[in-house]
Specification:
It is built from 15 helices and twelve strands. By secondary structure, the chain is α/β, with parallel strands linked by helices. The protein is globular.
């Protein structure tokens, strides 16, 4: 199915990325030394998507780490793929890191040469970090690897006390949305309530169909085709059950769906454009469960869904780490516009002067703001065009019948 190259940048990106690779290694039966110690051939069937097997029989992550501070747990990674770079503000990261960006690209080129059929890239970073992620994506990856799909897991903290965080978030997300690559932007909320471990577990679950044998969403392109019906509306949200902080008590699919889509689920607002569900663990009679699971997703969105078939359900016999039965959910819905609108509000009221002094023009601020507002407007238009409730549809049908009788 092809390989995926992983890039993690900055403090948050490296914390989430390191936890992500711990989960992947455990689920594929790979020890900290890179040796396979698993118990089923299913773990190795598609292990090459994220791991490269060395001549000595070690499985090494297809990963590049951009370090902005002390890193721990790098023993499983190739030392030559750990790049040192100081964390600065957004302008410095975007404009002044050409040498660092070239070092990163050198690592990515070297890893790409090991791939027989490169699918694309996975980027784990912070929206509130410096502009290096946008720099590498804009000027490097899309130019050197045209046509490849990029999936980002972009951490965003609503509790951030960084003065320039609103600008960093809007500037970064506008560059992600404007990139020439086919892209899926997963916004991952990180807070005191949602730990790094929880977010890393969601990222790992979101990649399940890419690295295990499943009938749907088997590669990045298929995943993008199913989850992004309109190019500009490519912002996704993820969830999984059980969460990292809870002990799994679910034994049956209805219980699991209730936990995944319960009152604490923060991604079920707005009009559902598309979703992908993966059930992890052994189940019998998979097809019989699928209608029930799809129905529960529709119920979670209060029936506010599009006319097209928007939900893809996959099954994976390999369970999640620490759970007999689990599930992951990726959602594309118009509800994300609330988050974008909140970003814009903080952006409008923050002091731009520090970034102006670093070389960002007023036109850069305006372009970023316009991209964000155009994306919000696109979600609002979809909501108004496709978001009629079932009651409204029935009422319209009733009026039509009455007109026919008249």
């Amino acid at each position: 199915m092809g390989e995926i190259l992983h890039l993690q940048i900055g403090g948050i990106g490296n914390r989430l990325g390191s936890l992500f690779w711990e989960i992947l290694a455990s689920e594929h039966g790979i020890s900290s030394s890179g040796r396979y110690e698993g118990d089923t051939e299913l773990q190795l069937e598609r292990v090459s998507t994220y791991f490269c097997e060395s001549p000595g029989g070690r499985f090494l992550p297809r990963a590049v780490l951009v370090n902005t501070g002390p890193l721990s747990g790098t023993g499983r990674f190739l030392e030559e793929n750990v790049v040192d770079g100081g964390e600065q503000n957004w302008a410095a990261g975007f404009f002044d890191k050409e040498q660092l960006a070239e070092s990163v690209m050198g690592c990515l080129r070297r890893e790409a040469e090991k791939c027989s059929r490169l699918q694309g890239f996975q980027l784990v970073h912070s929206l509130s970090g410096d502009g290096l992620a946008a720099n590498i994506l804009d000027d490097c990856i899309c130019n050197e690897f045209p046509g490849r799909i990029v999936q980002t897991f972009s951490a965003f903290s609503r509790d951030s006390d960084i003065v320039l965080a609103p600008f960093s978030a809007v500037l970064t997300i506008s560059h992600l949305l404007d990139t020439a690559c086919g892209i899926m932007v997963n916004i991952c909320d990180v807070s005191a309530v949602r730990s790094d471990a929880t977010v890393a577990r969601e990222i790992a679950c979101a990649t399940s169909t890419l690295r295990f044998s499943c009938l749907t969403n088997q590669n990045l392109r298929k995943l993008a085709e199913n989850l992004v019906p309109f190019p500009q509306q490519c912002i996704l949200r993820t969830a999984c059950a059980p969460a990292a902080s809870t002990r799994c008590t679910c034994k049956f699919l209805p219980e699991l769906a209730a936990e995944l889509l319960g009152p604490t689920c923060e991604i079920s607002g707005g009009l559902l454009l598309a979703s992908a569900v993966v059930v992890r663990g052994r189940l019998s009679h998979h097809p019989a469960h699928e209608p029930k699971l799809s129905t529960q997703i529709v119920y979670a969105f209060q029936g506010n869904i599009t006319d097209w078939d928007s939900t893809k359900v996959s099954y994976c016999d390999i369970p999640m780490k620490g759970a007999r039965l689990g599930a992951g959910l990726i959602v594309n819905s118009t509800g994300v516009q609330e988050r974008l609108t909140s970003m814009h509000k903080h952006y409008r009221h923050a002091d731009r002067e520090p970034l102006r002094r670093e070389g960002i023009d007023e036109s850069d601020f305006a372009d970023a703001e316009n991209t964000l507002l155009e994306t919000v407007d696109g979600y609002q238009q979809l909501e108004s065009c496709c978001g009629d409730t079932e009651e409204e549809k029935n009422l319209a049908a009733g009026d039509s019948d009455a007109d026919d009788e008249g």
